[in-house]
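Suppose you are handed a protein chain with no further information: no name, no annotation, nothing but its sequence. What can you learn? This example shows the usual starting point.
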Amino acid sequence: MEKIISKQYTERVTGSGKINTMKLLTKTTVYFLLIMLPVFTAGAFYLYTKFNKEIKHETDEELVNDKLQWMRYLDSASVNNPVFSINTPEFNLQPTEKAAQSKHKLKGVSIYQEPENTYAPFRQLTQVITLNNKNYELVLRKSLIEKDDLIRNIVHVMLAAFGGLLAFVLLSNWLISKRIWKPFYRSLDQIQKLQLNKLEALVFERTATHEFNQLNAALGSMTSRIHQDYTSMKELTEDAAHEMQTPLAIAQSKLELLLQDDTLSESQQQSILTSYDELQRLSRLNHNLLLLAKIENQQFPVTEAPDLCKVVEKYLSLFEELIKEKELDIHTDMADTAPWPLHPALTDILVSNLLGNAIKYNYPQGKIRIKITTDTFSVTNTSQLPEIPANELFQRFKKHSSGYTNSNGLGLAIVKKMADSYHFHLSYQYQNGEHTFTTGA
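A reasonable first move is to predict its three-dimensional structure. Written in structure tokens, the prediction is:
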């Protein structure tokens, strides 16, 4: 009952499944990063484009201003109808047959630079003008090398600034989110440590966040209801088992008296005997259910460590008649001392269940091997019965196959509950017709 409720509760709280998950803080940071990176990239591209456009605009204004200065100078030249021919990288004036133009043209060009053996970017202005009744093509250029260097430097500064800003925003967001979500993780930690059999009233702290207070109130109410339901079911099971003991004992005693009545026919005696056997089986079932409840409540404190070797020897002596009846070959390999961290009563139950099953389900002239070390206890027995399926191994009221008779299916479940409650392992192995159960720290 506790295992089913715990499993369902854990699945609801943790959302267990095969879906890949990540922490909420990590997911928030990733989403924020995915949103901010395109925004920052678009912003950087916009600023770069805008800045580059402004530089070109300023360069064009400089070229127009230079053109006006040159035209004033050429108009004022008092040479007798000279024919001008000037050619430099930044200024070119050559006679042309083209028609005069009223408006200049601006464009970007690349001009070969002999010293550097490379092409350099220039901004160029061209216009056909008239001087002394002659047409000239005026070409003015402005180098963009320094301006490109300036743009690159500005881009580097922008990238560094954006990178630093992004890192600062991410770090700030992470620190702020971590602080804000701290009450949530504290509440989650309390829920994860919750144990039904040790459930106490959970007190969740008040926070400055309204949603977290609502969550804590819901969790407190939920855990309180779960505890009440669990306690009610556990008390019902224990009370029912206790109340059944008296009528079972009375019914058994009455049937025993009837069996001693010589006036009963053989068929009547057989019916009474069958009823008596079923009552005994019901009595064992009732006893085992009570035992399971006590183990779940850990009502068997470990006050001393019994010698497991002596317990095994005691039960080998108790089962001696059954062993001789089946002519079983018993082989023991036990350490000199084997103190076992378990209550003496539970140690008896552990040994009697494993050894009793090894005898019960063995075949005549079969073998049983018992091995005890300082931290393990194993029982291996031959059997004609098949391997017990893993999904049915320790289930309550599961008899596994038609070959397992005279069983209420609680023996291995009790051993498993002891292992879970007192923190030692229990494993099962089937090989070459032999069943092996091993327990240990």
